[in-house]
């Protein structure tokens, strides 16, 4: 009972709103309980249940009832909506079946009952739906019923395959036919689809139907679709919807079918190579080419690489060409891979890729795929660039990621000159939105002496950096991943400025990380510091977050010490806990205390606030009344403004 009171009451809005809903009864009961020493938790708990039972009563009609059900005149459906159709069964629907099928709740009722209905009941329902199949299939809820009853309605659906395939909801029904029905049942459907492939593959709904035909049809069905697509593949590969159908053919087709599609693009002279490059740079063609690299033969991939020659840099810097270069590097053999990379090895090309939003992704793929020794061309370009330095690359939006790749993948000999340049600019990099990530990588991948130089710089400026928007990330990284001696030095400097840090929007995250990843003695010092001045400011968001961390990662002794402090009289006759309950951030900290402490200290928290409960209820009631008046006033002003506008229009 005490737990329920603390969780709901201290959470602010919930329990008070419930009490206010039946205010007269609940407040009177609370006063009586206080006089008679009855547990307040039990009373508030009862009040919450009573208010909840009245406020959470289901509405008479579903908000999602569609237009048909609202105007159908079905008395049975209306009774079902209003819970006046007890023990309703599928066989009871009769002439009301269509109205139910078009209704949100009614359609769900039919679907659920169909799963366990007898063949006779199913046949009865099908008889009622006949003549309405097309209408139901094109309606949101009706289409679900049709899908559930599909096997009994296949003959009626077969007469409208094309129109349903092009419809927003009807296409789902045709897809379910292809998935679930027997070959004999779906053969007439497939034949109609084959007659309309050109129309369906370019339709936003029809293309999904053709994809289902490819996936669930016979090999000869796929063959007929592939034959149609390959004859005009350039057109279809650049189409938003048809390109998805080509992808499905490459995924599900036979080796010969895949070869036929790819050869129609790759085989030929210079004009064919130009077509390949056109697809590589196209919004939708790029996905088709990527699938070509994934499913093509070695000879076909070689032809695709031929199309890349002389155009690697151009494509690498394009939004649609970049993924093609990445896919090519991952799909081809080592020789072809190095041919592609060779075009990017000149220093000017490397620099352009490093500083480009798409080229940077290509560089990332290169670092992942080839040996460190073969990455020397990137390191040389960075070190010898006439216009940029290692520091300027590290401060660049995209360049910083390539510097991190060098630190992560290259050999010690390769990255040593990069380390030296970075260590000369630690403070300027630490406080930069991009440079701070580079310094974190130095801490993670550098030698002990590199970390030592960085930690020394951080320690000398710890307060400035810990309260900096980006510098705090580096301090946190040292606390999480640094050596024990490094963490100890940083922690010592942080303890000297604890109050400043816990009240700072960035510094408080540093303290939270120290609580989570630091030594036990670090947490002990923080818990001791939370008493006194810091605890008086417990309504501050940063301090509340630190208190929560102490409860999550602290020892039982540390948790109990904090609870003893917040429950003790602060000299004003009231415990700090009472003030914390009135603030949204401190409220969360109190809930965390309640959840993680033992029963004895939960009782102590309850005892500290028990005599103040009536006053808090009155305070909350006044707040709710003020909010209500404010809302009503705003509504009146809005109506007056609307009326004035209407008068002006007249």
From TrEMBL:
Region called Disordered, residue ranges: 51-70
Signal peptide per UniProt: none
Skewed-composition ranges (Low complexity): 52-62
Gene Ontology, cellular component aspect: cytoplasm; nucleus
Keyword entries, A-Z: Developmental protein, Differentiation, Repeat
PROSITE patterns reported in the protein's UniProt record: PUM, PUM_HD
GO molecular function: mRNA 3'-UTR binding
One of the GO BP terms on file: cell differentiation
InterPro entries: ARM-like (IPR011989), ARM-type_fold (IPR016024), PUM-HD (IPR033133), Pumilio_RNA-bd_rpt (IPR001313)
Pfam family, one: PUF
Name the UniProt record assigns to this protein: PUM-HD domain-containing protein
Pumilio repeats mapped onto the chain: 92-127, 156-191, 192-227, 228-263, 271-306, 307-342, 381-420, 421-456, 457-492, 493-528
Span of domain PUM-HD: 205-554
